[in-house]
């Protein structure tokens, strides 16, 4: 029995995300909270013949929405329009996230908290500082959702490699050598979630060689780092908004990984012969607070070696190990075989990340009241 709450459930991301979560058999109850339309969205979804109960909650009912929630996902907040950076959203979204996280601290302090709202690089520090002020902070519970960067990296890498293969082998256009849905073996993304803080890592040397040889490496990196802009620009032709559908898919993938980990924990209790290894689930990157997580200090040291000894990186997106839906360990081996170019990108990312993190931390520090 797992209750999942979505805060901001009626929005462009919130609605398709809630739909995908309604289809997830590991969820028994879906609490849909928003300042508008939550009941309508919940009633609509409740007609779907899957077993998760859907209930809509409006402003005054936030306590009811959150009570008993094992996972809270936050896509509440303002999206970008052309000419606006994610950082420009901070003013509005920091207040929204701080207030919602204060309610999480009050009504479900042990919940795993997954923040989608932008700018993720600053709003995770806002969430962490808020939880600290409320006295309920646990580093393993707080995750910034950066899965969309990985989804894009997998898509674009397959596209460039397929394009090359078609040209090199003279095959028919549209022939698929690389399956987009299986590219997770070959590419990862670390750093943060905006522009140059997003650092794609190509694990397969043959693939990075092909990208370089065909002159597509720069284009690949740029598309992953600025994929969000492509969507904002395309939507601006006839409306406005940023990525919603691809984000909903990415968000539901991430929630699914957390749910698998929550359910695995329960299995050993039922079957005595399970090993503790079975309880751990390694997942794709998420933006976390490194101090307080196992391997976190080692990763901070590695990042210092890459970026310079004066750097003080406390937050980073990287692959993690989950147990019971909580981050127990970060993957320090991710930096072992990176190229010089990837090191340079990480160095640039860290400089920007430090500013983003300070902004979030200062926002909460300067508030007298939560
Ligand atoms: P949207 O405007 O369509 O939806 C936002 C929703 O939040 C609305 O329904 C609104 O009523 C609700 N909301 C506002 N204040 C609230 C509050 N205090 N409590 C509860 N709900 C509240 O925007 P969107 O397109 O869904 O984007 C939402 C956020 O997600 C944006 O900040 C966007 O930048 C971010 N985003 C992040 C990623 C990522 O990869 N992490 C990807 C896409 C979008
Ligand atoms: C994205 O990467 O698509 C999101 O962060 C939304 C945005 O503002 O680009």
Automatic annotation (TrEMBL):
Annotated EC: 1.1.1.37
The protein's matches in Pfam families, at most eight in alphabetical order, are given as: Ldh_1_C, Ldh_1_N
Keywords attached to this Swiss-Prot or TrEMBL record, sorted alphabetically, are: NAD, Oxidoreductase, Tricarboxylic acid cycle
Query: Ranges for the Lactate/malate dehydrogenase N-terminal domain?
Result: 2-144
Annotated ranges, domain Lactate/malate dehydrogenase C-terminal: 146-363
Domain of life according to the entry = Eukaryota
For this chain, the family text in UniProt reads: Belongs to the LDH/MDH superfamily. MDH type 1 family.
What is this protein identified as? Malate dehydrogenase
* Organism for this UniProt entry: Nakaseomyces bracarensis
Provide the organism lineage as a comma list. Eukaryota, Fungi, Dikarya, Ascomycota, Saccharomycotina
């Amino acid at each position: 029995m797992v209750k999942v709450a979505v805060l901001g459930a009626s929005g462009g991301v919130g609605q398709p995300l809630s739909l995908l979560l309604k289809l997830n058999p590991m969820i028994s109850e879906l609490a849909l909270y928003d300042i508008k339309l939550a009941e309508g969205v919940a009633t609509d979804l409740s007609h779907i013949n899957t077993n998760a109960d859907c209930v809509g909650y409006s402003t005054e009912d936030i306590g009811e929405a959150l009570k008993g929630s094992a996972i809270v996902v936050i896509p509440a907040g303002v999206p970008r329009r052309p000419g606006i950076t994610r950082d420009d959203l901070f003013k509005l979204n920091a207040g929204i996230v701080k207030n919602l996280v204060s309610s999480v601290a009050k009504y479900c302090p042990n919940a795993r908290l997954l923040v989608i709202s932008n700018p993720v690089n600053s709003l995770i520090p806002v969430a962490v500082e808020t939880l600290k002020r409320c006295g309920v902070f646990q580093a393993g519970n707080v995750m910034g959702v950066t899965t969309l960067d990985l989804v894009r990296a997998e898509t674009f890498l397959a596209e460039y490699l397929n394009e090359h293969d078609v040209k090199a082998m003279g095959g028919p256009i549209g022939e698929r050598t690389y399956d987009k849905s299986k590219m997770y073996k070959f590419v990862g993304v670390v750093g943060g979630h905006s522009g140059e803080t997003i650092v794609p890592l190509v694990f397969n040397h043959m693939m990075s060689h092909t990208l370089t040889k065909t002159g597509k490496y720069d284009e690949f990196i740029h598309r992953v780092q600025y994929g969000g802009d492509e969507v904002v620009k395309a939507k601006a032709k006839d409306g406005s908004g940023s990525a919603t559908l691809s984000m909903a898919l990415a968000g539901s993938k991430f929630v699914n990984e957390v749910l698998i980990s929550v359910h695995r924990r329960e299995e050993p209790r039922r079957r005595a012969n399970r090993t503790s290894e079975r309880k751990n689930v390694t997942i794709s990157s998420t933006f976390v607070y490194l101090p307080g997580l196992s391997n976190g200090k080692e990763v901070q040291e590695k990042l210092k070696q890459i970026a310079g000894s004066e750097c003080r990186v406390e937050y980073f997106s990287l692959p993690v190990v989950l147990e019971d839906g909580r981050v127990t360990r970060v993957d320090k081996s991710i930096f072992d075989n990176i190229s010089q170019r990837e090191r340079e990108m990480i160095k640039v990312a860290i400089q920007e990340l430090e500013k983003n993190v300070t902004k979030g931390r200062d926002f909460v520090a300067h508030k007298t009241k939560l």
